[in-house]
Amino acid sequence: MRTLIKNGTVIDPGHIHEIADILIEGSIVTRIDKHADMGRLTAPDTTESRIQPDHVIDAAGLWVVPGLMDMHVHLREPGEEYKETIASGISAAAAGGFTRICCMPNTRPVNDNRQITEFIIHESQKLASVRVLPVAAISKNLEGIEICEYGELMDAGAVALSDDGRPLVDSLLMRRALEYSKSMGLRIISHCEEPTLAKGVMNEGPAATAKGLSGIPNAAESIMVMRDIALSELTGVPVHIAHVSALESIRAIRDAKARGVSVTAETAPHYFTLTDTDVAAYDTHAKMNPPLRSEKDRDAVCQGLVDGTIDVIASDHAPHSRLEKEVAFDAAAFGIIGLETSLALSLRLVIKKVLTIEQLITKMALNPARILGLPCGISQGLSADLTIIDPDMPHVYSAETGFSKSRNTPFDGWKFTGRSVYTIVGGKIIFNL
Amino acid sequence: MAWSKKDILDMESLSVEEISTILDVATGMKEISERPIKKVPTLRGKTVVLFFHEPSTRTRVSFDIAAKRLSADVIAISAGTSSLVKGETLIDTARNLQAMKPDILVIRHGSSGVPSMLAGKIAASVINAGDGTHAHPTQALLDMMTVMERKGNLNGLKIAIVGDIAHSRVARSNIVGFSRMGAKIRLAGPPTMMPRGIESLGCCVTDVMDDAIADADVVMMLRIQKERQGNPLIPSEREYAKRYGLTLQRLKKAKPDAIIMHPGPMNRGVEIAPDVADGPHAVILDQVTNGVALRMALLFLLSGGGRDADAH
Ligand SMILES: [Zn+2]
């Protein structure tokens, strides 16, 4: 099977940014023909006429980019299939333009053992669609007491370690996890939240006070970010900070990077899009952990993306059903879905000229892979994992008609410009519009 | 003015005119409770559901009396006796309550925002009888009524509110309500009891009790609970009483005709000295009496009474 993607603007940051034809044979990219090199070819000499592909995608006016990777997703299988299954999460990811997703271990049972890791990989491979890369637990049953068998988990196919959803409170255990994971090369992804300070349900400040809701201060996050930076320095082992939301955390990460600490960080689209005063009072679809912060924090997140302090945009896709969300605000579950809105929300930053398209692709495709030591990019000989984006396509996001099983999102009904139109994994079109 | 508002959810959503109308109507209602037969037929055939999801005696009884004096049918549902509560989403609760076809639903809930969330999904008028640490508008309105009776107006009055502001829905509603009517609010309490950004509601903050009550026309004391889910905000009630308790000595800083208020129930000897609580400045029982009249006024206005008020 030969597929030719012709006339697209191929963007692989640091490598190529021009109009080119890409030939896929089987699952591999076998040719990249830049139009400039071909000197505006006339019909008889085009790649198409010479190769005679089985399938042609005319990507004129579209961006052909390395397959997007969302390194922070909660699939709810095993255990909470009423919220999301591996299959429904994969469909949402494919529709959102993602060719790879990392799924967090807080399932029931927890992914802290070989069997669950293998189950997730097996179930996802059956679907031959988005690549699902399991993140295994740092501590057994996410209890923060004993470290898991990282060697076993790595052998089973886990790509990173995290107790996401719960902070790792015990600093000694965090140190041990960093040290012990070093030989496996599994990156530790830290959910930073000092629990004694983080007892609230929304950002601490005037909005929470007026609504009578208990607040979570920025320091709940930044204290643990600073601790993890210190432990990374102590052990010499890299650490990745999940879903950064607070100005003080970003400052700490920027300073640490400047002195050479091996720390990387991600944020989620809601943190650069919304603040605690942008959402309707008591809207449980805007309740997440960490919470939407102030204007100052949102600006700091944007600045962190611009200057490279924040390496990655990840959705923190966290499906919950109406049972967890149609309840009092303080009783509602934390988390929103994001696989199907992540790219559109991020493209707003490109439209507003906050980020260049190269920066965006770096943060949504290349950096997640590099951080986890996985191959990425568009090159001859590499797997044909590609996303094709129509930057001008207007669309309205509807949670109702989305692919996720859950609808907990504050972005229902939002109007966007730009979306993915083809998602290709290993040369196979797994989604097209 | 003609009444058009469906719900009473918080003080933010009430205009100066609406507050004035409520206080006027409430003043008129007071007389009914002085009659030998304390009942008028105004709400005959109307159903008032009291949905109390959190224990409360004072507020529930006050609404109960108010509704009965207006001849409404009153149905009380409390968390303990109701299957409306466990394992239900709020939408389910709203549908179940709506199925009873109430005209007015009075809600007390331990979680902030629940009355507003239900009001948007239910045809009946909703009165918030206290939600979490968010709002207690009927308490604020009865406090305003009580101050009006004593002071003639609210504009320009100096009002001190002392205590655990962070956990007080009464304080929030009073700050918003009194400041909307032109009063000046000063808060006092230990910084552990002051929520971040409270100034944005329209008040200033001090941690020195004497600064707050200096020259005050009204001193409002809040109930202190030392234990808050194993998270004490003060080391002891003894030290709190010493630094923030209202004593006769401290009261001298306020205006000579200052009035003392307390939403109850009081901890005599902690936030308020017994001789102050029972002394001539205290209007605490007036608050209780006015509570009934004020709630009668709201039930009357929300059940359509205000629509033909102008005709009389
Ligand atoms: Zn997390």
Write structural notes for this entry.
Chain A is an alpha/beta fold and 433 residues long. Chain A folds into 2 domains: 2-64 and 382-432, Urease, subunit C, domain 1 (Roll); 68-371, Alpha-Beta Barrel (TIM Barrel), CATH 3.20.20. Chain A contains 14 helices and 18 strands. Chain A has helices spanning 35-38, 47-51, 86-95, 114-127, 150-156, 171-181, 206-211, 218-235, 247-258, 269-273, 295-307, 322-325, 342-351, 357-371, and strands at residues 2-12, 16-25, 28-34, 55-58, 63-66, 68-73, 98-103, 131-136, 160-162, 187-190, 202-203, 215-216, 239-241, 263-267, 312-313, 386-396, 415-425, 428-432. In chain A, α4 (114-127) packs parallel to α5 (150-156), α6 crosses α8 and α8 (218-235) runs parallel beside α9 (247-258). In chain A, strands 1, 2, 3, 4, 5, 16, 17 and 18 form an 8-stranded mixed beta sheet that branches. Chain B is of the alpha/beta class. Chain B contains 11 helices and 9 strands. Chain B has helices at 16-29, 58-69, 90-99, 114-119, 137-151, 169-180, 209-213, 237-244, 248-251, 274-277, 284-302, and strands at residues 47-52, 73-78, 104-109, 125-131, 158-162, 184-188, 204-206, 218-221, 259-261. In chain B, the strands form 2 sheets. A 5-stranded parallel beta sheet of chain B has the order 7-6-5-8-9. In chain B, α1 (16-29) crosses α11 and α5 (137-151) crosses α11 (284-302). Chain B is globular, with a radius of gyration of 19 Å. Chain B starts with 15 loop residues before the first helix and ends in a 10-residue tail after the last helix. The mean pLDDT of chain B is 91. The A-B interface holds A 204-215, 217, 281-282, 322-323, 326-331 and B 12, 89-91, 109, 111-114, 116-117, 131-135, 169, 172, 195-198, 200-201. Zinc ion (ZN) binds next to loops of chain A.
